[in-house]
Amino acid sequence: MKSRFMLSCAAAAVALGSGEMAFAQSAPQADSAAATSDVIVVTAQRRDQSIQDVPLTLQAFSTDTLSKLNVTNIDGLLRYTPNVTFSNNGPGQGAIFLRGLSAGFAGQQSSATIGGFPNVALYLDDQSMQFPARNADVYLADMERVEVLEGPQGTLFGGGAQAGVVRYITNKPKLSKFEGRFEGSFGGTAGGTTNGSFNAMINVPIIEDKLAIRAVAYTDHRGGYIDNKLSTFTRLPSDLGSYYLAYQGNGNKLTPSQQSREGNYSNAALVEDNFNPVDYTGGRVSLAWQVAPDWDLLVTQAYQKLESKGTFAVQTYTYDYQPLTGLSSTLFSPQYNKDDYWNTAWTINGKIGDFKVIYTGAYLKRHISQQGDYTNYARATYGIFYQCTGGANYYWNVGAAPYCYEPNSRWNDKVRNTHESHEVRISSPDTGRIRAIVGGYYENFKIQDNMDWSYTTIPNCDSGLTAAQIKAAGTVCLGNVGPNPNATLNVPGPRPDGVSFGQDITRGYKQYAAFGSVDFDITDTLTVTAGTRYYYYDNFQKGSVYSSFNGGCYQVPSCLTGSNLDALGLKSTYKGFRSKGTITWKPKPGTMMYFTYSEGFRPGAFNRGPSARVRDPIAPHAPQLLVPAAYAPDNLINYEAGLKTDLFDRKVTFNLSAYYMEWKNIQIGFFNPAAGFGNTAFATNGPTYHIKGLEAQIFARPMDGLTINGSATYNESKQANAPCFIANNPGVSSFGKCITEVFVGGQVKPVQSPFGNVGSITPFSPKFQGNIRARYEWAGKAGMDWFIGAGVNYISTQYNQPSTYPDGNVPGNGNGVSPNGIIVPATTVLRYKMPGYALADMQVGFTRDNWTVTIFGDNIFNSHASTFTNSSQYIKTSTIVRPLTYGIKIAAKM
């Protein structure tokens, strides 16, 4: 099948760029006649090359193009990139997927601790910005260009580039030219509030041709558009933990007096319209020094602060399961996200003889502080455990009349990430018949994560009293939970009142790598390229996981019951080679064909330690599955063929590519408490997928002033096998066999296809994506040059999760959805089929002298399509595209 597919697509080819000039230099920029051409120069292969000479699927967007399209962040950029999807919970809270290489997306909770590393690398110049489930949302101010490289790029870009690379490349100081630019906009949001942005750049040669500085600053406010509506919360008999309250024949219900006192709550204090604004603030300063004719130094300091409030997901029901319409939610606890980073980078460019030498280093420090509402967890199996006493409860005041406290809950995550990298590259002259590049790489990556879930509303005990004094007084209270004091901790000591569960984890790795790539011109038209990368990862994880799910936490001042991950010695090493080979043929000027074999990978990581799950159907019901602390790397093999060609005297550029990929042993997050897999998520290695696809792009200049860009992709992913969980606990009835039954809720139930079925598709993998845009420019009177532009992009149906999870679109299927569509709180992960959607934008305006005025509209038909549908609080919610935004933008150059 694979060979037939590849042979049928032997004439395939690669991506087009933006059609705008993108002039590539990692060193200080000097004035050049090349800047007047329309050749798009990129550094995708660590050399300056025309985009049409690079044998891979590649797109590039220049500063001018980004400004014309009104693109300033990752959401806007990906509207114009085929074969790219983006799942998110809001700004700075998402993941990029290329070519359908996704195993699903669950969101922010625990991502810093157990989330797998991304398989799409994100770079700011030469600094990797990768982070599990939280791509840094770099603001696109004064960018030289953005490159999107599809397919494995592991040879030159390493383990995070399994599926591809997104590269933000900044403008560098110009040594001999003073210039400046500012841009400001003001507008509104349909159904929401106002937006405004401003950015300014200045480039100053301090010593002409020797020393220059370039600085950019920006601020961007985006008004909210989701309303937090008034809602109540009433404890219901259907709440899964209600049977713990069974008391003297009350039918698992609170008594009427308890209902009136403690059963009904309101979020009136948090009711607010348009309560999800976003603010970007930041800047960048670069200093360039021409040390000698062949040597220069560049130092860049960047800072960005991103702040958002509220939620970016709309609910279908209130927390009392009343229908909710419009762009609305019903949060009971404040929700926010604060995300800032400092990044220092330095580059030395030089020559030793005819060989180019580049050393680049960078140090990133990123802080994230986030809080999310978790109130509806009160309906889960263990929600009542932390909020109610008496009845038949586990530990608290058993036998007394049931009594419940408020349900208001939240989670709070504080993350510190440091990322240091160093790379040296040596390359031979670009004009030789044999061209080589070799290099070495070192990386030190660390995450410090302190995350607390605060859903205990039973009062905490007085920490000034002893346990004996508390018990003597008969106080109904819980001790303050805390981590193991013997573990490596970021925040030592007991946690604040209300914390029920948490993790204080430090994880990371050091990577050492060496790479090389050689191009050999067999003839003037035929070139063979071969490259490989040796990598060595040294991973670690330390810290503590703590909870109050313990009878010893009752009537004590503190409860330091946390685990000690340090004692487990959680370390792992991964090493090996990943290689690439390409044959390129140029049958005539302006036409190139190629075939590529490439390999990609990403390292393994850790869970919160080992665990035991899935109880044996045979008494004494021991756990059948011992989940290890570590999970392994996954690997990708890519076969790709392509064609790039210029037609009609370069009035049309047409590119076509085809690929077939094998994604093996994929890393997948697993969470299914209803099936007996425990109440916490874990990561493991799952099935293999086969992905094949086609991508076509066209750029046309049919007449003076008119440009048309279009692209389309067809992507088909199929699960190739259906592995099972093997019972690995000696002594259980199923030892050594696939786990097919589980004892849960006092019953024996089947365990069916935990990793999905053969033939199912990957999530975030629409079969079809397409976009087209056009721009027409013409000269008017009085020195006014006018323009009008418009574009539309379409994404077909896709899923949010693999077929591992119950189908959230089928009511009454016994998998967590009731006949009326309300989710029964058995699991927070359901699989939804998200409908396809189209987005359109438009710009019109004029340029006079150095001024440009643009009136713009994005999402002009005001779509509310979902980019990520989930059930994280037992209610179907959808993170929607930003509604129609419109405004006026004024820009000027000096």
Automatic annotation (TrEMBL):
Residues 51-165 form the TonB-dependent receptor plug domain. Residues 1-24 form the signal peptide. Its main location: membrane. One of its GO terms (biological process) is iron ion transport. It is found in: Cell outer membrane. SUPFAM superfamilies: Porins. InterPro entries: Beta-barrel_TonB, Beta-barrel_TonB_sf, Plug_dom, Plug_dom_sf, TonB-dep_rcpt-like. The keyword Iron applies. Keywords: Cell outer membrane, Ion transport, Iron, Iron transport, Membrane, Receptor, Signal, TonB box, Transmembrane, Transmembrane beta strand, Transport. It is a multi-pass membrane protein. Residues 381-860 form the TonB-dependent receptor-like beta-barrel domain. It holds the Pfam family TonB_dep_Rec_b-barrel. It comes from the Bacteria. GO terms for cellular component: cell outer membrane. Belongs to the TonB-dependent receptor family. This is TonB-dependent receptor.
